[in-house]
Amino acid sequence: MVCVCKVNCESNIGFLIVVVDLKSMGMTVRRVFVFIILLFCSFQILNAASADYKKALTNSLLYFEGQRSGKLPPNQRVNWRGDSGLKDGQDARINLVGGYYDAGDNLKLGFPLAFTITMLSWSTIEFEDQLSEHKELKNALDAIKWGTDYLIKAHTDPNVFYGEIGDPDSDHSCWQRPEDMTTPRSSYKLDEQHPGSDLAAETAAALAAASIVFKSVDKKYSSTMLLHATQLFDFAKNHPGKYSDSIPPARQIYSSSGYEDEMLWGAAWLYRATNMKKYLDYMGGASDSGGVRTEFSWDDKFVGAHVLAAKFVLDGEADASGIWAQYKTQAEEYVCSCAQKSNQNVQKTPGGLFWFLPWNNNQYVATATFVMSVYSNYLSSKGASLQCSGGDVSPDHLTSLVRSQVDYILGSNPRNMSYMVGYGSNFPQKIHHRGASIVSIKKDPNPVSCKGGFQDWFYKDAPNPNVLVGAVVSPDGNDKYDDSRNDFQLAEPATVTIAPLVGVLAYLA
Ligand SMILES: *[C@@H]1O[C@H](CO)[C@@H](O)[C@H](O)[C@H]1NC(C)=O
C-alpha cells in the first residue's frame, strides 16, 4: 500500500491518496482512492487568524524603505517618500548621502544606525531560510545594504569615521519633511584625537555581521565590508574613548554609557566573520564579563556578546570554563529573567507585555524576544533545555513566550490596538514622525518651512497623511496609548526597535 498525502493549508483542504494493490483471482489490480480531508490543518489556520506574522514581517521591512535618506532607487516601494539629504557630507567635502533617518526626526545617527544594521544582519543570518521561504530575503538584503553602503562611505580612513549628520537642537526645533530640510547638515567625525570605541566597534560589528550575510550573495562586497570592520575594530581598540565625548551633539540624544560591551560584541562578530583566533582571544582575555544585564539595547550590547559567546561554548569553539562560563551563565540568566524563571524577572504590564523602561519600551521587548528566539534555536539544535533557578525552560516554551509578546504588539492587548503601523484594523494614526505627518512631497511639492510644519501639521488633530507601514510604537506601563503626536516617548518609532523584530517575525511566520 502506498500513501501520498498532500495538504493545502491555505484552502484548508487535504488530499489523501491511497494506492492499494488488490490480489484477486490470481490477478493484481491496482486501485487508487482519493479522499478529501477538510479541516486537516484547522489548528494552523486558527493560529494564522490570531496574528499574521508574514504580513507583519513584510511590513517590518517596508519600514526601512520609509526611513531611507538619499537618492531613492527605482524599485522603492514606499512611494510617498522622495529624495532627500542629497548634500550630506558637503561641509566635509565628502559624499555622505544615503543611510537611514534614525526615528521621527531627520538626523542620521551612526550609533543607533550601526546597532540597527547589526541586528538586521543577525536576523538574516539566523532566520535566512524563513526569510527566503516568505520571499523577504531580497528585501532584508536591500535593507542591510542601504545601511552598509552608507557606513562604508562614512569610514573615510582607517582611523576616521563620520558618526553623525545633523544637529539635534536645530533639527528638533523644525517640523519638516526630510525632502524639505533647511536645517544645518553638519557632519561629525571620530579620529585619533576624537576617539569613540563604542561607535567604531559597533560599526565593526555591523559590517562584520553583514559580511557574513553577503558572503554567498556578493563575495567582493562582503570582503570590502570585512576589511572596514577589521580596521574599525583596531581603531576602537587602539584609541579608547566614548563617542559621545568626541561628538558632543550625540550626548543629548544617544549618550553612551561605555564601550566595553561594544568591544566584546565587535570581537564576537569579527570572530564569526573571520574565524580568527585573535578575536576569540580578545573575548577570552576581557577583564570584565559585564555581569547579568537587565536590557539589550543600542547602548548595552553585553547580552548580545554573551549570547554569541554561549553559542561558541555550545559549539565547542570556546572552553566552558573561566570567563566563557560566565558569559554563558549571564546569557542564560537574561533569558531566564524573560521567561519569568529567575530571581530577578523582567516585569510585565497588567496586560502581559514585558516592561523595561518608559521610553520606547518596545525596543527592549524586540531585543528580548529576538534573544529568546535565537536561544530557543541554539538549545533545540543541541537537544537541550535551559536550566533556570525557577525551573527548566524548553525551547518550545521560549518560542511560545515570544509568540505571546509579539501577539500583544500586533493587537492581542487590553486596547485591542496593533502597535505596528499598517497592521490590523486598529493601529496608531498620529505617530511622532515628520515625514509621515506632513503631506507627501509627491502630492504637494510646495516646501514646508521649519516652523510652518508645526502650525500646519504637527498640531493638527488629524491622522497622519502618510502611513509609515511597519513602524512600531509602545504603550505605557499600564497598557495605555493615547495616540498623541507630541508624545515622543511612546509615539516615536525608531529603527533600533524594528531591526530585531525582522528576525522575530521571520521566526514566527
Ligand atoms: C477588545 O476586544 C474584546 C473582545 O472582542 C472586547 O471584549 C473588549 O471590550 C475590547 N476592548 C477595547 C478596549 O476595545
TrEMBL record:
This is Endoglucanase. SUPFAM superfamilies: Six-hairpin glycosidases. The chain crosses the membrane at residues 32-51. PROSITE patterns: GH9_2. It catalyses: Endohydrolysis of (1->4)-beta-D-glucosidic linkages in cellulose, lichenin and cereal beta-D-glucans. InterPro entries: 6-hairpin_glycosidase_sf, 6hp_glycosidase-like_sf, Glyco_hydro_9, Glyco_hydro_9_His_AS. It comes from Sphenostylis stenocarpa. Residues 53-505 form the Glycoside hydrolase family domain. GO terms for molecular function: cellulase activity. Keywords: Carbohydrate metabolism, Cellulose degradation, Glycosidase, Hydrolase, Membrane, Polysaccharide degradation, Transmembrane, Transmembrane helix. Pfam families: Glyco_hydro_9. One of its GO terms (biological process) is cellulose catabolic process. Gene3D superfamilies: 1.50.10.10. Its EC number is 3.2.1.4. Belongs to the glycosyl hydrolase 9 (cellulase E) family. The active site is at residue 432.
